[in-house]
């Protein structure tokens, strides 16, 4: 599942049930975040009723979208609600809370998503965890049964809350991908179900996009073939997106699991570009989505696709900071979109640390990266080819070697963006960062949005 350029297993089909909603209302919702809590408060029957905390633990935004929708539903029922990322919650606030709803996804191998990692470290693993005798709570756990630790984090959170003495208001609900029944059960708990309900109107938001370009970028590679693709809508204008966002590709043979790809271009490019590694199964057949995109489709053919906001990997909030961009393989896609955005914005304080196998075959987007280096869009470039020397050497090793520079950039306020394989690369980069900068600083960077990951 590593580095095939898609993350279908995880981000697939619950998204299918949400992405249309998200696509149409996400930006509006984002702007309404501050207003939402206020709205719900004014809808409350009694002004001194403390708000219900609606807490989300999210990696790619699904749990967050459900949290906002749940808060709106509560507001409509006259119950004031306050939405918060779990990382923003501290033990005293939780201990003082009477009612909380937790919406939590699972990543890695049963781990918390990045949006909860600081809460796990500071509160769940604290040597003296808080006592929560006055808290009544419910958990909605998002996950995918294809993973061994189905809903692992949601379950761990539920158990931790029990152990802290909190009272379960409703039994934990576990959502396997788009399972509409589970989502409907969750909604039914919070009063009248709004129109549209969670997941409604999702299926029709895919549009047909035409493949206008396809080029293999790594001929001769020892790894799977990697293709750069260009797509434009078959009709109508291109929908907006920001660097960091994802594109979902629908697969006819597997309609409940659309595949997510990091968008490699910016809107101003006039083309939605993807970088796709062709996945080959042991029996020789190609991966459903990667095979469709890299082999079955011909130039001029169309594919069902939609843009998916990925708030957690956007540049928002870090526009004026130096950027350290770290990745491997097809992870260059998300980093390239950010670098193209930075070039347009005239921000040249960018450091790219990118890993692949061999310079001769795997230097993806070589001309572009070298041009950025030449014209200063990249202030620093570290290309790390693992197989060009006797000992395997990866991006995390380069970061360790460059500890002084890393600390210097962080001192200057840099934000770190990591895109690519979760196993091996992103986990190794996380460990290297902790080794160089210390656990406390890394937690602070995560909590303040200066350490963001698009990993799969
Ligand atoms: C790399 C990766 C690892 C995942 N690991 C698990 C897992 O161990 N257990 C599980 O139930 N779901 C797992 N998932 C599925 C996600 O929890 C699920 O897609 C969830 O709905 C995502 O919600 P979010 O967008 O709020 O983060 C994983 C997904 C990805 C992409």
From TrEMBL:
One of its GO terms (cellular component) is cytosol. Residues 204-316 form the FAD-binding FR-type domain. This is NADPH--hemoprotein reductase. The keyword Signal does not apply. It comes from Variovorax gossypii. The lineage of its organism: Bacteria, Pseudomonadati, Pseudomonadota, Betaproteobacteria, Burkholderiales. It comes from the Bacteria. The keyword Transport applies. SUPFAM superfamilies: Ferredoxin reductase-like, C-terminal NADP-linked domain (SSF52343), Flavoproteins (SSF52218), Riboflavin synthase domain-like (SSF63380). Its EC number is 1.6.2.4. Residues 52-191 form the Flavodoxin-like domain. InterPro entries: FAD-bd_FR_type, Flavdoxin-like, Flavodoxin/NO_synth, Flavoprot_Pyr_Nucl_cyt_Rdtase, Flavoprotein-like_sf, FNR_nucleotide-bd, OxRdtase_FAD/NAD-bd, Riboflavin_synthase-like_b-brl.
């Amino acid at each position: 599942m590593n580095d095939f350029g898609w993350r279908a297993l995880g981000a697939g089909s619950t998204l299918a049930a949400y992405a249309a909603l998200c696509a149409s209302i996400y930006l509006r919702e984002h702007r309404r975040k501050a207003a939402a809590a206020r709205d719900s408060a004014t809808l409350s029957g009694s002004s001194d009723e403390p708000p219900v905390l609606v807490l989300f633990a999210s990696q790619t935004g699904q749990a967050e979208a459900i949290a906002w929708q749940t808060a709106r539903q509560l507001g409509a029922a006259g119950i004031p609600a306050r939405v918060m990322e779990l990382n923003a919650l501290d033990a005293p606030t939780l201990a003082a809370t009477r009612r909380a709803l937790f919406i939590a996804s699972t990543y890695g191998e049963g781990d918390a998503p990045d949006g909860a990692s600081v809460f796990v470290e500071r509160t769940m693993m604290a040597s003296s965890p808080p006592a929560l005798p006055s808290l009544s709570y419910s958990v909605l756990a998002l996950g995918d049964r294809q993973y061994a630790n189905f809903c692992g984090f949601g379950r761990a959170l539920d158990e931790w809350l029990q152990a802290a003495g909190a009272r379960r208001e409703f039994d934990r609900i576990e959502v396997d991908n788009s399972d509409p029944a589970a989502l409907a059960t969750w909604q039914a708990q919070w009063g009248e179900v709004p129109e549209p309900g969670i997941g409604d109107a999702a299926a029709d938001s895919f549009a047909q996009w035409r493949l206008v370009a396809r080029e293999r970028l790594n001929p001769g590679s020892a790894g799977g073939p990697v293709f750069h693709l260009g797509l434009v809508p078959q009709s109508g204008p291109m929908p907006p997106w920001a660097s960091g966002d994802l594109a979902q590709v629908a697969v006819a043979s597997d309609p409940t699991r659309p595949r997510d790809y990091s968008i490699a271009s910016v809107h101003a490019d006039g083309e939605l570009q993807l970088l796709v590694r062709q996945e080959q199964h042991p029996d020789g057949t190609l991966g459903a989505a990667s095979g469709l995109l890299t082999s079955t489709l011909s130039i001029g053919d169309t594919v069902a696709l939609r843009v998916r906001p990925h708030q957690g990997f956007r540049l928002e909030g870090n526009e004026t900071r130096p950027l350290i961009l770290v990745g491997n393989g097809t992870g260059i896609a998300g980093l390239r979109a950010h670098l193209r955005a930075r070039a347009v914005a005239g921000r040249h304080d960018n450091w790219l640390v990118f890993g692949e196998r061999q310079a001769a075959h795997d230097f993806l987007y070589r001309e572009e990266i070298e041009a950025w280096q030449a014209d200063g869009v990249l202030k620093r470039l570290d290309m790390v080819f693992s197989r060009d020397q006797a000992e395997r050497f990866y991006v995390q090793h380069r970061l360790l070697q460059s500890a002084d520079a890393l600390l210097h950039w962080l001192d200057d306020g840099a934000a770190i963006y990591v895109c690519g394989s979760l196993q091996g690369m992103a986990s190794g980069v996380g460990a290297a960062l902790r080794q160089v900068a210390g656990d406390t600083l890394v937690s602070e960077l995560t909590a303040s949005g200066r350490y963001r990951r698009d990993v799969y």
